[in-house]
Design goal:
This protein is an alpha+beta fold. The chain is built from 20 helices and 38 strands. The longest helix is centred in the first third of the chain and has 24 residues, at 9-32.
Amino acid sequence: MTIWNRLKPREYVIFRNLAGLLLLVMAISGSAQDKTKFVDVFIGTGGHGHTFPGAVLPHGMVQLSPDTRLDGWDACGGYHYSDHTLMGFSHTHLNGTGIGDLGDVVFMPMTREEKLNSLARSTFSHDQETARPGYYQVMLLDDQINAELTATKRTGMHRYTYPDRQNARLLIDLSTTIHSRRHPVEQIWIVNDHTVAGMKYSEGWAPQRVIYFYAEFSQPFTASLYNRKGLLKGQRRVTDETVKALLHFRRLSTERQVIAKVGLSAVDAEGAKRNLHAENPGWDFDHVAGLAQDEWNKQLGRIEVETSAIDQKKIFYTAFYHAMIQPCIFSDVDGRYRTMSMSVAQDKDYTNYTIFSLWDTFRAVHPFYTIIAPTFDEALIRSLLRKYDEQGILPRWELHSAETGCMIGYHAVSIIADAMMKGLQDFDQAKALEACIRSSVFDTVNVSMFMDPDVLHSRMSSRSLQFKNVQGFIPCDQFTGSVSKGLEEAYNDWLIAQMAKRSGRMDVYQQYIRWGQNYKNYFDAKTKFMRPRLSNGAWKVPYRPTDVNRRNDYVEGNGWQWTWFVPHDIEGLIRLMGGKKAFEKKLDALFHVSSQITGDGTAADVTGMIGQYAHGNEPSQHIPYIYNLIGKPRKTQEIVDSLLYGQYRVSPDGLCGNEDVGQMSAWYLLSSMGFYSFCPGVPVYETGRPVFDRVTIHLENGRLFVIKAINNSRKNKYVSKLTLNGKVLDHYRFTHQDLMDGGELVFYMQGK
């Protein structure tokens, strides 16, 4: 007999009420663990953050989000908070980049067919727009259609609620792409009265890119197909440069709802279909949205922060969210994927990843992964090495299995070296060293014929590497960005030396440790700046360290910012500057001189200024921690404090620069916890000032690393004492192994 059968009626009522109260308390307790409520997905959608607010899972192939603009620098994410009209919901987006692409397979619900004759748009209001991780909703005011979006890893799910007594239509548009990229081949075909499939081949930032979709609908439809000339009567398949399908839902139920499920694949429509049926077999939209929220809570729950400052908690978990969007899965559930040579391969033991913005993310995103998700970081390295096999050189900025060649350096080296030096081993270590060496020299032999020749010769394996390796510097009269390239490649070469030494390759070590000192060839002892040099070795004149020029000698910065990019040899830079006092004086000047930028170029990326320090762009972001290395940690603490509280806000324009695939956020994540990976490849963290009273990192190995801040407040931004497991740390730093071993790091804070 159960307890329920033994209770009298009155006792039953009391017990039931107590049980209900207990369940309520448990529900409240459970909701307190809901980290998604601290995520504001609209942070970064204004200003120049270039993020998007739509539905995505951690590292998911699908990023289903509204598009409000296609062109202009602030259209990179497809959405800008200042806009009040949208043109539909596309299934692929980039997270905060400075160049735009994707925006594939647009769905736009409508009631008025005449919208088809122009770019379909509807007004919307932020007052009738909501979003959380894995879910997005907006009311389309022109047609009074409520649109809701959610996602699985490889599928997007839409729920549209149409108004009564109105025609229910849906436009599927393949003819638009963010930044208006070319798409010479598009296809749509009607499978049956519940299913549409299609393909889109594009040529843009990614020189060649293909995406397939397979879409199923909860309601039957009749379809009209269009190309650039207009309606195609009686056809069920169309191939052209511009193709659209208009679906008519004529027999809606009283709920007036249409649910659409869309699978994506880079392989073929059959792959998109398999992805759809494997991940999203039912029609329960709320259930899928709930699973998405659960998945995000699982990811965000890796770190617990305690503070009474709710805004900082929101900034933290939003930053965590942004750092976990991309790189993303780019292989199907059956293990098939598209290679860097545009062929199709299958490997059920391998996951292909895409969107490697390595110039940005080597600095903090990948170091963050080595802490909270080291097995995932190893998987990313395996993907980089597979791409090396496929194209003959390590990726630099890979997008949908195509090499864009964007930015400088060969920072796959940094990601690999950082993981290797931290003891991550689940990748081919010998191949990793081989790939790093191959990518550091001028050699265009055996590179995939599918790589764009201009990308190969001017970016991936430029003759500038030959000058760097033979002459010791890159001449500015032959190559743009010479100083920035030379400094970053010196750092990369130093890392290769460390990897070679670890592997017992002392011949390689000796060569690359020498190339790692090439940064000295750009230093002008008279001005104490890293300066451009001509082919004859003379300094380029005239010279102003505040200049940002269109054909610049620096990349997205100037002499003030780039002079400090020697993370692997600060001691050597101190000696070049004339000792610690002269070095400190010059470093102080960086933060106190005028913030005015000169030159004939735009300074859109040079933002978040403190003096000439530019937090809105990556080359500056390690600089505040340099003070630790000259025994002045209080200055690091002052500057980090001003950045944490001054450059990040709970607002659509809450980022002072592009999100850059998680880098802007990862800087905040590490720094707000009280430390930073100053030189990836050196498994040591420099400390600053923590934002939170307590942080608990749940490590993959089952241990906890707890960070406490005693007497913490906005006013108390200085560290009087730092202890690790009770032992005082004199040098304000600790190792990655200290962190992985678990334990307790305690900051004792004060106001002086």
